[in-house]
Amino acid sequence: MTDKLKDAKIVFVVGGPGSGKGTQCEKIVAKYGYTHLSSGDLLRAEVASGSERGKQLQAIMQKGELVPLDTVLDMIKEAMIAKADVSKGYLIDGYPREVKQGEEFEKKIGAPALLLYVDAKAETMVKRLMKRGETSGRADDNEETIKKRLDLYYKATEPVIAYYEKCSIVRKVSRNTERNMMLQSNMTSVLSLTP
Ligand SMILES: Nc1nc2c(ncn2[C@@H]2O[C@H](COP(=O)(O)OP(=O)(O)OP(=O)(O)O)[C@@H](O)[C@H]2O)c(=O)[nH]1
Ligand SMILES: Nc1ccn([C@H]2C[C@H](O)[C@@H](COP(=O)(O)OP(=O)(O)O)O2)c(=O)n1
Ligand SMILES: [Mg+2]
Fold first, then answer.
1. N or C: which end of the chain has fewer CB within 10 A?
2. Per the domain annotation, does 186 fall within a domain?
3. Region (LID): which ranges (predicted)?
């Protein structure tokens, strides 16, 4: 089964909540035709289905916590396989959330070619999420949960970036300033929204 993904080009997209991961991924899809898989979107789709598993997931996400590793990984793998015949590569948005998740992904699916690090200041992220919360209908776009998501990001997810820096696959795009600070690859040169 995993054979289908043997030569898949994989890009992890990592950044804090509201840093703009989803927004940047859309731009890459438009330019490079990659398949965008947002782990958060996959989880929200499961919640929307009304399944028993979805109900459990909703409770976890509403608290700003992480859902169990295996659940997310299985969903991502399933979605990747479904697109394997047509995909030029995959943008895995919002995963890994902790070093362990990255290790498991590599064991069960494969190694990433690149990690795109979408960087934004905490203040910027909070402001954007509060604004998005006015219309998103997302149960976790509220002040209290945003704070928990941020704390968890700094504690669990930032170490993921340091982990992959060791193998020099991290490309950073800064969403704090008007212009992109770092345009280190073809991939990031398409990332040009104003903050
Ligand atoms: N002004 C400005 N707003 C942006 C930019 N990128 C994203 N946003 C807005 O910020 C909010 C968060 O962006 P998303 O792309 O949803 O961020 P995300 O990192 O996917 O966030 P999660 O879905 O919480 O993981 C959205 O309302 C976007 O419209 C940017 O470069 N400039
Ligand atoms: N790999 C993942 C991705 C998302 N989640 C859960 C926890 C997150 O707060 C929610 C929403 O994820 P999403 O990536 O859409 O949003 P944030 O970056 O947290 O704002 O889903 C998870 O537990 N594990
Ligand atoms: Mg998103």
1. N
2. no
3. 131-141
ipTM of the complex: 0.92
pTM of the predicted model as reported, rounded to 2 decimal places:
0.91
Amino acid at residue number 87: S
Q: Is the CB of 22 under 6 A from ligand 1?
A: yes
- Ligand 1 atom with minimal separation from the 140 CA: 24
| Residues 2 and 157: beta-carbon distance below 8 Å | no
Q: Is residue 193 part of a domain?
A: no
Q: Domain range holding 132?
A: 3-179
Q: Which residues surround ligand 3, an ion (CB under 5 A)?
A: 22
Question: Is 194 touching ligand 1 by the criterion CB < 6 Å?
Answer: yes
7 C-alpha to ligand 1 centroid (Å): 31
DSSP string covering 12-77: EEEE-TTSSHHHHHHHHHHHH-PEEEEHHHHHHHHHHTT-HHHHHHHHHHHTT-PPPHHHHHHHHH
- Say how far apart CA 103 and CA 86 lie, in whole Å: 26
Which CATH number fits the domain that encloses residue 44? 3.40.50.300
Q: Is the CB of 37 under 6 A from ligand 2?
A: no
Average pLDDT, the chain: 89
Segment 114-125, tens digit of pLDDT: 999 999 999 999
Count: domains in the chain: 1
| Ligand at shortest distance from the CA of 44 | 2
